[in-house]
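Might I ask for a little of your time on a matter of protein folding? The record follows directly beneath this note:
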Amino acid sequence: MKVLYAGPSIERLHEEYAKKGRLDEKAPVRSSSSVVIDAPVARVWRLLADMHDWPQWRSDAHVVELGEVRPDAAFRWKIRGMAIKSTFAVVAPERELTWTGTAMGFVKAVDRLRLEETADGRTRVTVEESMSGPFLTLLYSNARLREGHDDMLRMLRTAAES
């Protein structure tokens, strides 16, 4: 039953899923959204990778604790008031920023942000995420996750194009 699905351990999600470019396809909550931004990849990457400055363009999130942005480095942040403990899995400048995270003591997620230069020099950003945890679907849905991703991409596009 999807409502009881706990998913793999956070360690397994990190090593066998996130680091290998995979989401948990069995997770009950998943989303993928994409946008093309009229800005070069380097500019978009700077906005994403400089997480301390997220509140300047992303009103729903702020970083509480962040060291170096590198694989296996931990960071803590809040999104819409929810505390999340995350660990970077992939940091490929101007290509991909992926992390795993836990929240509320039972939610586990893989979050991927991929950047691709288009033929005309713009940037396609795709955000994908899978979330699992027992009873998660009673609190959260695919539609709500997609709405959050679409909002974030809209804010990112506005910041990158200004």
